Amino acid sequence: MSEQEYIDYFEALAKSHKAIRHTPEKPRFFVANDNNYTEVEKKVRSGLNLPAIVIDQYYDDLDRSNDNYLAQVMGGITVLVKCKGADPVDVRRARAEARAIALSFINRMYYDCRFPKGTLYNKRIIPSTRFEGEPTPTIAEIATGWGYPFEWKMPTTVALSPDDWSDL
């Protein structure tokens, strides 16, 4: 799976989720390019509509410990919801709402991997079975949320191509 396929998958989910309804006119989807919330805060301040989905940058590892080589894709999904940052009760309300939406995305991801009608099924992705959720900090005093990291494992090839090497 390429990074673009990863982004396209989650953007399609953001478009079809009833609480999010991402469109180009009302953007509610963002790809974070670093591991801190600086970019996200800038985007929230400059017009990311809430609630919104933020996906973490794509990382991968190759597992060659078995005969069946696997690529392991690591990512994360966070849902941000509007809140009054100075009001702890409203922050907790927003986090509960964000957590419910994020769980909906996690459940859809699991469905898409495990069932023949799922959009990831043909890629033979094995989804995480454990998701450790965590709250986000309050962002720009107007948003907070809930996020889950995840891992996908999928078959990969380690074959060498003579087209890549002049000495083979």
The first-level CATH class name: Alpha Beta
Uncertain parts: none
Q: What is the gyration radius calculated from CA atoms?
A: 18 Å
How is the biggest beta sheet arranged?
Answer: 7 strands, mixed
* Helical run tally: 3
Mind explaining what this structure looks like?
By secondary structure, the protein is α+β, with helices and mostly antiparallel strands. It has a single domain, classed as Alpha-Beta Plaits (2-Layer Sandwich). 29% of the residues lie in helices and 25% in strands. The chain is built from 3 helices and 7 strands. Strands 1, 2, 3, 4, 5, 6 and 7 form a 7-stranded mixed beta sheet that branches. It is elongated and about 65 Å long. The relative contact order is 0.18.
Sum this structure up briefly.
This protein is α+β, with helices and mostly antiparallel strands and 168 residues long. Helices cover 29% and strands 25% of the residues. It has one domain (3-155): Alpha-Beta Plaits.
